[in-house]
Amino acid sequence: VGYIASHTIKFNTGANNSRSTTLTIDSSKRLLVGHTASLSEGCSLQVARTNDNTVELFCYSANAGGARINFTKSRNGTIGTNTLVQDGDTIGELHFRAADGSSYYRSAAIEAEIDGTPGSGDVPGRLIFSTTADGASSQTERMRITSAGKIGINIANNTTGDLQVCATGSAGGLLRV
Question: Where does 81-177 have alpha helices with state H?
Answer without folding.
Answer: none
